[in-house]
TrEMBL record:
<dbReference type="Pfam" id="PF02687">
    <property type="entry name" value="FtsX"/>
</dbReference>
<protein>
    <submittedName>
        <fullName>ABC transporter permease</fullName>
    </submittedName>
</protein>
<feature type="transmembrane region" description="Helical">
    <location>
        <begin position="286"/>
        <end position="311"/>
    </location>
</feature>
<dbReference type="InterPro" id="IPR025857">
    <property type="entry name" value="MacB_PCD"/>
</dbReference>
<comment type="similarity">
    <text>Belongs to the ABC-4 integral membrane protein family.</text>
</comment>
<feature type="transmembrane region" description="Helical">
    <location>
        <begin position="377"/>
        <end position="397"/>
    </location>
</feature>
<dbReference type="InterPro" id="IPR050250">
    <property type="entry name" value="Macrolide_Exporter_MacB"/>
</dbReference>
<keyword id="KW-0472">Membrane</keyword>
<keyword id="KW-1003">Cell membrane</keyword>
<dbReference type="InterPro" id="IPR003838">
    <property type="entry name" value="ABC3_permease_C"/>
</dbReference>
<keyword id="KW-1133">Transmembrane helix</keyword>
<feature type="domain" description="ABC3 transporter permease C-terminal">
    <location>
        <begin position="291"/>
        <end position="407"/>
    </location>
</feature>
<feature type="transmembrane region" description="Helical">
    <location>
        <begin position="331"/>
        <end position="357"/>
    </location>
</feature>
<feature type="transmembrane region" description="Helical">
    <location>
        <begin position="21"/>
        <end position="41"/>
    </location>
</feature>
<feature type="domain" description="MacB-like periplasmic core">
    <location>
        <begin position="21"/>
        <end position="238"/>
    </location>
</feature>
<keyword id="KW-0812">Transmembrane</keyword>
<dbReference type="Pfam" id="PF12704">
    <property type="entry name" value="MacB_PCD"/>
</dbReference>
């Protein structure tokens, strides 16, 4: 029930001790401010990591060969491993029931592509239609290479937006002919990539065309694979990890590589990487919560000390109240009321300032691993509960001490 007299007492106490109340509230406000900002940064780091993984398919596994580092079955170390079309075909046969999307690539680095008077050096990748999904490519115009292009070794090309801007400027490139090391290709599509401009300096052609036109034979450079979805993230990670191990064992056996040779075949599993990063983010977020809570506790201790001083100053008043029949719970309620009020107001100000800072400054923060730091509604509600609890804790012990004051002792207090 609203008690006007009690509120008048609280405001009168605050008016008499403006500086003390301000400094006390500042400690609480700064604690909430630091907590919310830290949680916002933690969420921004999580967003940044998630954005990095968005550059490719979320459950992508890609494989590329290296050089052997150990002697095995009479073969010397230092052999460069070269994967072939047959490797890819065998994988499709052995693991086909587990695969969702797959593609192999034959890469040509630094090929000169020219159109009219314009030319530049770009990466030309030969691959399959599934490469679009595996690399999370979005078409801006035209189409991607299709299975007909691959089966007939068509000289078709999909170019990145950066290539289009360099060679064609404002002109529509669809249907135009470009030259790659003297070989004509027809541009059928333009794509954009979430990985940014660096990814858009590449071009994609049918893998069969790339192997024939640029002396690749039946060589392939990389394998891109995604697995069929699972019911949960943890289950998907477990299946993906086991598949990576089986795939590595198969390739090592096929190319006569020592089982413990870790430099001959490299398998990068984005789900495993994501789990490691997100686990790290959860630990960082937990650490931020700890730092923020400790800062709030420091503020609460300050409030509690101030309330003890207030109780000491009002000892005679409390004694008179008890002599006139005031119950202990009434005394406790009076002290708690003031403590919660000061803590809540200061905390809400800290919360509002921190949320405003994240709202206006957060979208402008865009580094490699921090993106759009925010705090969601649930976290904001949790901080409100923390404020109320902090105020109650700050005032409880001083209030309990006040309630135990004996009237005769209090009336003798000077």
């Amino acid at each position: 029930m609203f008690d006007l007299d009690r509120w008048n007492e609280i405001f009168e106490t605050i008016r008499k001790n403006k500086l003390r109340t301000f400094l006390t509230g500042l400690s609480v406000a700064s604690g909430i401010f630091i907590l919310v900002i830290l949680l916002g940064i933690g969420e921004g780091m999580r967003n940044g990591i998630a954005r990095e993984f968005e550059q490719d398919a979320s459950n992508l596994i890609y494989v590329f060969p290296g050089v052997t580092s150990k002697e095995y079955k009479g073969l010397n170390p230092g052999r460069r491993i070269q994967m072939k079309n047959d490797d890819y075909n065998k994988i499709l046969l052995l693991f086909g029931d587990k695969l969702d999307k797959s593609a192999s690539t034959f890469q040509n680095w630094g090929r000169v592509i020219s159109y009219g008077k314009e030319s530049g050096s770009y990466d030309v990748r030969g691959s399959f239609p599934a490469y679009q999904t595996l690399e999370n490519i979005s078409l801006m115009s035209g189409r991607f290479i299709d299975i007909h292009d691959v089966e007939n070794s068509e000289k078709t090309m999909v170019i990145g937006n950066r290539v289009k801007m360099d060679l064609f400027k404002d002109k529509d490139p669809i249907g135009e002919i470009v030259q790659v090391s003297g070989v004509n290709f027809k541009v059928v599509g333009v794509y954009t990539d979430p990985g940014g401009e660096r990814e858009e300096t590449r071009t994609v052609i049918p893998i069969t065309t790339a192997q024939k036109a640029f002396g690749g034979g039946n060589n392939i450079d990389r394998l891109y694979i995604t697995l069929k979805p699972e019911d949960s993230f943890d289950e998907a990670v477990a299946v993906s990890t086991q598949f990576s191990a089986d795939l590595e064992e198969f390739l090592k056996s096929r190319h006569t590589i020592a089982p413990d040779d870790n430099s001959a075949i490299y398998i990068n599993n984005t789900l495993e990487n994501a789990k490691r990063f997100f686990t790290l983010m959860d630990m960082i977020k937990f650490f931020f919560w700890g730092v923020g809570i400790c800062t709030i506790i420091a503020g609460v201790v300050g409030v509690s000390n101030i309330m003890l001083i207030i109780v000491k100053e009002r000892t005679r008043e409390i004694g008179i109240r008890k002599a006139l029949g005031a119950q202990p719970m009434s005394i406790i309620g009076m002290i708690l009321h003031e403590s919660i009020f000061v803590t809540a107001i200061a905390g809400f100000l800290g919360l509002i300032f921190s949320l405003a800072l994240l709202e206006f400054v957060g979208p402008a923060i865009e580094t490699q691993y921090i993106y759009n730091p925010t705090v969601n509604f649930t976290v904001a509600i949790n901080t409100v509960f923390i404020l109320v609890l902090a105020g109650a804790l700050a005032g409880f012990f001083p209030a309990w001490r006040a309630a135990r004051i004996k009237p005769i002792t209090a009336l003798r207090d000077e």
